[in-house]
Amino acid sequence: MVTAIHPLADSTPVAATTRPRSPGTLRACAALLRRDFMLAWRRRGELFLPLLYAVIVTALFPFALGPDPELLARIAGGVLLVIVVLAMLPALEAMFRADLEDGTLEQWLLAPQPLALLALTRVIAHWLTTVLPLIIVMPLLGALLNLPVKVLPVLIAALLLATPLLVLLGSVLSALTAGARRSGILLALMLLPLAVPVVIFAAGAIAAAQSGMPYLAPLTWLAAALVLAIVLAPLACAAALRIAVET
Amino acid sequence: MATPPAPSAPLLSAHRLAFSRNDEPVFGPLDFSLGSGETVLVEGDNGSGKTTLLRVLAGMLPPGDGEIRFDGQPSSRDSRNGRVLWLGHRSGMNESLSARENLGFLAGLYGTRAGMTAATAMERVGIDGWIDEPLRTLSAGQKKRVGLARLLLLPGDVWLLDEPYANLDRHGIELVNALIAEHCARGGAALVTSHGAVRFADPHARHIHLAT
Amino acid sequence: MHWLGSPPNFYRFAGALRPWLMAVALASAAVGLYGGLVLAPPDYQQGDAYRIIFIHVPSAWMSLFIYATMAVAGLIALVWRVKLAEVIAMECAPTGAAFTLITLLTGSLWGKPMWGTWWTWDARLTSELVLFFLYLGVIGLYTAFEDRRRGARAASLLALVGIVNLPIIHYSVQWWNTLHQGTTVDFLDPARSSIAPAMLWPLLVMALATHLYFFASLLGRTRTGLLSLESGKQWVRVLVDGQPAQTTGAPT
Known about the structure:
heterotrimer, A: mainly alpha, 10 helices, 78% helix, elongated, disordered N terminus, B: alpha/beta, 9 strands, globular
């Protein structure tokens, strides 16, 4: 795109005034995904920690409540939902911190691509690398708590809808707290109240499946909320990132 | 050095630019413009607002007063896109990744100068042997040079360089000066901050002094 | 409006207005409480226990109204970076949290004789509790920043994100048929209101009283907040030290 007219008297390099086209948004998001996956792979040892945490906490319940299989089967769905939410928290808190500290966020801000789309890409990468493993492990955890087999697919469906919703909400809060004094618990205190409606609907679907009732309605509500969040949360996250970078 | 004929509007211009933080004035009002091929050195002691000025010009902070124009257009994400190259205190690169991976990511966001690759840029700044090592294994000076490789690799006519000489030895300083000189010869422009303790490249550069 | 946006002007204006608002607020509270506690007849189902409604309902309305005010001021602070809006938004939060807490506690006190339980996880109570945590989150986030203005903007963004909770609270009794009673006072369609007039007017007077109290309190808190934020500036020094304003040529 030529932005200034030069009388071509000599071999003046025109490159200075012709802006090269920046990479398209899709290519930029692909580059960000690649980077985040590379980083996750470099730290793959750390990714096991939330899984280990989930397994250990799950195992605590039979010890705490007694091994009565019927009791465990009744509470398994809800307990697993809560365990996943809690296991997600530490990684959520750190979503943007490292990039703020090393200046990568500044580069995001100056990039030609819309900041909201970069934020959404980060959310996707985060979900794939930190939350999906938790969901994959669900059958194992379900076995530990005697989860009825018919509930398992509904539990996984509910998690597949609820966890991205929570990561989207968490991304906004993580961006807001990234610029604040380090406070690990602050994000959890802000996120959990907002997570209550999500947990209610997910738990509703699980409970319905458990008692053989129709479970599609709460799942549809979750899906609708997820669509809304995919549109709105990146915008709020971008606004929060701009605040975080301003020092 | 034959300068190209001046384009219709300067690459960057600031008019009555000022900024305050918590109602304490940080700098301004400033008036200056940066044309093709020009270098401006912003000098001042620590805390005089040099970094803040650059951040305001780059669009990271909103100006308190006054306006900024790129090519005569008011500063906005569109007018800045592809035009501004920022080198700040923080490297903008992740320590767990290698130089090649970091530069590759930035190229994915911003694109590259015609014909440039990460490898060529690294070679030019003299640390191509370290291109695949995680950044955390490099010394401060080497990391700084990887940052300089960014200047070669990424497109941008207006360079905003905040303390580019920090952490560099004599050769590094010469390298920075050479890069700036080449950039200006190509028609670009550079706004550089410094404590003032360094022998700057261009004796004809204009100086802006910020007082605390 | 622009005149009012300047801190010293707002400070003077608020200082003049506040005593009047507070006086009328206290007077109407007295009238409303007298009307509700003494004049209004006992409820045919609940007897005299229902009278806590004259504190509970206005507090609940205020908990929502203050949040909306906080969100609007926060939006202005975020988009236009108006300092006064930042202070107002942040000063709303503690008062809003207090009213929410009063709502929860009075509701609990009412619930024990009515439903036989101090607490239940029905939709409205749960969403009101969530509102309380949202207020605490806004206050917590604001105080976590060293730069007060940046903290105010971050907390304002959080308040805006949480605003989705307001319609949930309001419509929760219509969407889910749970323990809390349904809509009794319908502003949009008064014919649907199911409350007796003798009980309605003290309720509305109390609503007026709480609104006026909130405005008076907000004016006072905003004045203090402005003093604190602008503590280095000339107009504050004049106020505190009583020095006459000096005209200096040098920039401050």
